[in-house]
Amino acid sequence: GCGSGIPIAKYLIEQGCQLTGVDASTVMLDMAQQNFPEQIWINADIRQFRAEQTFDGILAWDSFFHLNPEDQRQMFAQFSM
């Protein structure tokens, strides 16, 4: 649920982070790509997303409230994969 990348991705980029954003909305991803073209933006449902690389951190800002409580619980196992 990276959305448009504003404000959280913007802040992290300003701190020197490289980002990979995941969102199911192509509209949000198009906005993120326009805002921060040097970052990686992936169209996927976070519940099924499988990354080939590992990350230094995961931030699920403004995404959990879109999920029902059971899906929210299952995301912690998903994040650890």
Characteristic terms for this protein:
alpha+beta, 81 residues, globular, 10% strand, single chain, two-stranded parallel sheet
Helical element count? 3
Q: What kind of sheet is the major sheet?
A: 2 strands, parallel
What is the first-to-last residue Cα distance?
18 Å
| Fraction in beta strands | 5-15%
Find the structural class using helix and strand composition. Answer: alpha+beta
**Average predicted confidence as pLDDT:** 91
Unreliable segments of 5+ consecutive residues: none
Gross geometry: globular
**Widest sheet: strand ordering:** 1-2
Assembly status: single chain
- DSSP, total strands: 2
Task: Please provide a written account of the structure.
With 81 residues, the protein is of the alpha+beta class. The chain has 3 helices and 2 strands. A two-stranded parallel ribbon has the order 1-2. α2 links the parallel β1 and β2. The longest helix has 11 residues.
